[in-house]
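pinned: reference chain
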Amino acid sequence: MRDQGQDRTSESRRLSTRETAELLGVKPETVYAYVSRGQLSSRRGPGGRGSTFDTREVEALARRNRREPARSSPATGTLSVRTRITLIDKDRYYFRGVDAAELAARHSYEEVAEWLWTGVMRPGITFTAPEASVAVARRAVGALPEHTGPTDRLRVAAIAAATADPLRFDLSEEAVLGTARSLIPTLVAALPPKRHGRPDDGPLAHRLWAGLSGRTADEASLRALDTALALLVDHDLAASTLAVRVAASARAHAYAAVSAGLGVLEGPLHGAASGLAHRMLLDVLDRGSAAPVVEDELRAGRRVPGLGHRLYPGEDPRARALFALLEEVPGAAPVLAAARDVVTTTARHVPLHANVDLALAVLTVASGMHGSAGETIFAVARTAGWIAHTLEEYGEAPLRMRPSGQYVGPRPPQPLPGR
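pinned: its structure tokens
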């Protein structure tokens, strides 16, 4: 039995950064990532040299990391992953506990991204792409066939940018944040411009507009695009985000993790969904009514694009916020009316609300953008969220995203197949 003197000694014992890293099985840089995320508290060492950590706090974190890998929920059969980034609750969603729609309404995309990454708001921040990174990404994208889709262009740009970054294998929080702040503007800069005079600096939304629309942007349209980016930054463990976390769990570098997300995003049930809604709205405008268009969709056995969301029983808060801004966009009124016609027509039989894909389609149609523009906006926006999840996963035990397969094939031993 331990005496009280031993207990007091244990309580007063503090660990150095090196000892803490060894106990947790991580690099020293990851220890400071735990501190920045509030998972550990630190204190300056004697003489102000280095940091020290409470033994019991470190041991508790080590036990949590061992005890709580990614796991399946018995109630739903779905994968459950601890995260401090996004909460979806009823018909609202929150970034680090703050209402995400309100954040997007008051702050730029870059500011919201910084908040998601660090929990610190940095007013006025903009992201700048290194010239070398942009040059290699543009060369790589320029070599692709003309019909190449936006997600493929972005994925090639991300891989090309990685080859220009000799520090890409540094997984410390500081290095990954540096990667994020340069990769996102590199992706935008690598997109072929739709018009001359594309800006290379200033708010990211202004630069992205030039890669999506041949029109001169007005302030209301730029604000709607910037807000759309901020609204789409993250949405908990969507399919692409799960892919990113699997890559990060295997300690792939940030460029590779983002590339994994882009690979999943291309599906019609995820990032490409707004393109289906875009084409539908053009059809409604051409035919003058949503009724025949909705009828055609249902007759073909397809869901009506841009309606309903399994995480929101009511209205998608992202759609609500974006629709409000689109009211101020010049020339958007007919497209908004077409979207409302789709919702009203469908609601006669199925009470579905508009989701963010429909709102994004209104923005792209009203702005004279290509049908794939919504996919591009989604991918650029979500890259910030993927980086946030990558950072969070680097702070967890490696290779925890490894579910067990349930084999249902023939039981061995089976005879060797004949010739």
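why pinned: Residues 96 and 119 are 7 Å apart (CA to CA). Strands lie at 14-16, 42-44, 51-54, 71-72, 79-80, 86-89, 92-95, 98-99.
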